[in-house]
Amino acid sequence: MMDFQFPHAAAAGGASLLTAAARTETTTILFTDLVNSTELLQRVGDESAQRLLKAHHAVLRDAVAAHGGQEVKWLGDGLMVAFPSAADAVRCAIAIQQAPHNAAAGERLAIRIGLNTGEALRDESDYFGMPVVIAKRLCDRAAAGQILCASAVAHLLAGRNGFRFRDAGLLELKGISTPLPACAVEFERAEGVALTTTPFVGRAAEIAKLRQKFDDARAGHGALVLLAGEPGIGKTRTADELVDYARAAGARVWQGRCVEGNWAPPYGPFAEAISNHLRETDPQALQQQLGYGAAPLARLTPSLRERLPDLPEPAPLQPDEERFRLFDAVTQLVIAVARSQPLVLVLDDLHWADKGTIALLQHVAHFIRQHRLLIIGTYRDGEIDRQHPLADALAALRRVTEYECITLSGLARAEVGTLIDALAARAVSAAAVDAISAETDGNPFFIREVLLHFGEEGALAHTNGNGSNHHAVIELNIPEGVRQVILRRVARLAEPATRLVSIASAFSGRFRFDLAARVAGLDEATALDAIDAALTAQLIRAGEQLDSYEFTHALIRHTLYSELSPSRQLRIHREIAEAMERAYADQLPQHAAELAQQYCRSAALPGAERGVPHALAAADRAERAAAWDEAVQFIRIALELLPANSPQHPRTLARLGLVLPWTLAYDEAASVAREAARALATHETAQAATEYLAATTWALAGAGCERGAWTLAREGLRYAGNRRDATWARLKMFDIVRREAEDPDNPGIPLDTPERREVIGSVTQLVQQGDAALIFYLGTPPFATRADVLQSLVAGHGGWSDAFTIMFYAGDLRASARVFTELAARAEQHGQIGFAVSGWAHASRAYLALGAFDRAQRAYERARALKQRLTGSSSHLIAVIAATDERCRVFDEGWDTILQDEDIATAASQPPAEHKWAAAAAQAGFARFFGVTGQADMAVAAVAKLLAPIERASGWAANYTRLVCDAADALWFAVRADHADVIERNLRAKVVEPDFRYPNVDARTSLARVCALQGRCDEASQWFAAARTVLDEQGARPLRAIVDYDEALMYARRAVAGDNERIRALRAAALARFRRLGMPGWARRAEAL
């Protein structure tokens, strides 16, 4: 092709059309204008005009999006667009002119377009300067159906196949002092389809349902809707139609799509949707929306740090908490946005979603009902089998929220005719419509591909709307399937273009032009012509990033890839990997996932081990985003690429075993861990195997599989030998807990044994290594007295371990309230929602014990509000249950809430083996409940079952103080003395003498009660006096009031002459305290005494 010559270029050479400025950007500006729009709109009427303009806007937006343009603004019925590439701008202009603008109201619209390239001034959302003015003036001068551009545009594209320009001479433009050399862009008037997106027709019932769902969501009744169907059936297009409706109604729209293959970033569609929101939102508003979730979200969308540069790094958490913190941050952002305006979240192509994306969708969906949020997901139903993560998620979602699945089928014959009329630039006969409808089963994508195929062949010229033209219809030779029509269309391309798109099909989604050209062996000029041809054929479209492209539909990529022989596929993948390594030498971590994928797909070729660093780097990135399933995939790729005898193999296998627990693949995690430990013992040392199994044991326990942790602990001890350090202690303690849980005679409380004492002797090392949570799980170190407890706190390490000791052994209520409030607030700030729930619940318990009921209520409400954000079972919920129980105790009302909680009843009567260490304390709580509610026989029967743990456990065992006090209190309320001697003996020796204290129970009060039950009222009176002293010291005002009531009740039960005055005085004191504090149930008891 000859280069275009510009005879008038020199004449204008002295005129400077560009203005240099500090904030300039070289860009190509495009303006469109609808010719004679006022006259047209008056002719068709308002209703038709609305449909007409909507269709016109859709055509323009489709073309702009397909060619990588930035929509700047609408000017009446015209559009201003900016392009980083002049070639993409010209292609977009041609696509707009070739598109049939007759999809609404039966009117053919005429468009004119102006283009100019130059250095334009830019602010955040607009462009200014002479290049913009010239583009607008060229648009104004263009004729209907014409594209005018400045000669600078033609100069940039001179010599490129696919672009033709005609000299338009020097044009006088309004407001421009010097005539401008201009050109007209020449292009074919397409007889087939030129729209880059299939027009929307039919689906009236489906759209009505979607609109109703959106209207409900806008009113505060959120929903999840899934659009299912075969490839090309119109799932995305249907979702787009709802998006237009929602935007017109004032909704904010987030969109993200899943990408085929492992190369996509973790939680890809959510990351894409949120990244777009970050760009569009003011930083101050963003900070308000994100709250504490900002720092965790920066790991999902690194661009957040560009918007909020002062973000701190999130505090490190254990893996399950990292993932939950991220999920919660996403959910809270979604909710915050939905509060300000209705939000529609579209997640496209969920059949390609990774497990992490599905898990995040499942998490967000839990909170959908009460917010102005509509989530729309699309997926190919034929690709969702029982092993797909979406199948499990849908089954689980049925149990927690409502969702609707709409399955799309092919268009009816009449709708096919409407679609063909909208796509084709000429009338098509009814017989041709019948044939196309029958052969394509009404699949819109198939229909469009068939029309493109016929348009390229010129076949549509032989059919028209005036008759059936039977022979012409037969000669159409409609391909049997969409794959065949795609291959026929590709066959028309020149060989370089065919080679380029074939190579591009081996990329996992988007591809960069220079990389595809390099692997295809094309020089730049030939490759540019090839890419232009593929764009013109609408096989590919411009990607979001400069100089990148993607196939217009995955079916095209799959079809091209399937035509490559396996041997050729292998070698193309390896060439792509090597080309990427050269191109991204300074950015390898950002492209690690795609590189790992390419090496994996060429693993049969020598040198595949070069992909291992990329696979491990991709796993690192996935782990930072708490995308554990994706991390596992890449570690597996690394193992596949490693030679069997590689020295890296044991540690890589060990890494897999450490990550698998967080994917909940417990059995495989244990199996891999055992294999990795054997490899470490063989290639390194037995000590390395021991340390590894200790780490994996904790990972399994932390991920919720304590039984698996027990099994691995036993394995680890075999490698431990004579070591007696913190690693050994961790393994040994899990093994002890296993044996106690499996022992049918175990009383349901940690036992004081020499073996346990030996392990607990390592507590200092455990705390130094950050195992405070493990200490509490295994049992607090043996304190002889409360004084020992207080001494340990002087040299304590702070945090949760000390908080538990302060509250549940020292009974320092004021310090407990302060510390747990601080810990809860910090946990909430760091995204540790489970710990925040338990922290606020424990703070509520401390405030209750102090009689600070307002603060207790606020902490309790906060715990319950955060509890709603926990979507599964959690040990942290035990603290909320305890707080609920203690509220009933303090106020002496609301006991029906205990009865209605089936989980509490199940946990007490049939606790899982993993929680057997807490079973006795739970049973004691129910014994007290039976006594309070007047079920004396059940209370005594429950107490009888508690005798073994009361006798066998030590006073420092977890929850022992509450256990023995609840047993005593159960008898007190039941007015029974059965087993009182056993309870009294242990209460004295194990709790009262060492002076252990626990919130909302008091050992001296309980001892007074059992003494009174056994007829020793004088001794009981002394213990009531001692209780008053301790409770006043603690500031435990509710229990202090109860002591006065209990002593009055003791005398009333004794019914001895002369006690009436003491009863009246004690009753009056108690009643005054109850009323002053606000303890209504106890006040009623006192009034009735």
Which descriptors would you attach to this protein?
single chain, 1089 residues, Alpha-Beta Plaits, Rossmann fold, 8-stranded mixed β-sheet, 5-stranded parallel β-sheet, 52 helices, 59% helix, 9% strand, elongated
Q: Can you identify the CATH class of the largest domain?
A: Alpha Beta
Major sheet characteristics: 8 strands, mixed
The CATH topology of the largest domain comes to Rossmann fold
The tally of domains stands at 7
As a whole number of angstroms, the C-alpha radius of gyration is 37 Å
- Taken as a percent bin, the fraction of beta residues is 5-15%
What is the CA-CA span between the terminal residues?
109 Å
CATH homology superfamily of the largest domain: P-loop containing nucleotide triphosphate hydrolases
Report the total helices.
52
Mean pLDDT: 84
CATH architectural type of the largest domain = 3-Layer(aba) Sandwich
Principal-axes geometry comes out as elongated
Helix content, binned percent = 55-70%
Q: Could you name the ranges where pLDDT drops below 50 across 5 or more consecutive residues?
A: 1-22, 102-106, 465-475, 767-773
- Helix/strand-derived category reads alpha/beta
Number of strands: 16
Concise structural overview:
By secondary structure, the protein is an alpha/beta fold. The chain is 59% helix and 9% strand. Mean pLDDT is 84; it is low at 1-22, 102-106, 465-475 and 767-773.
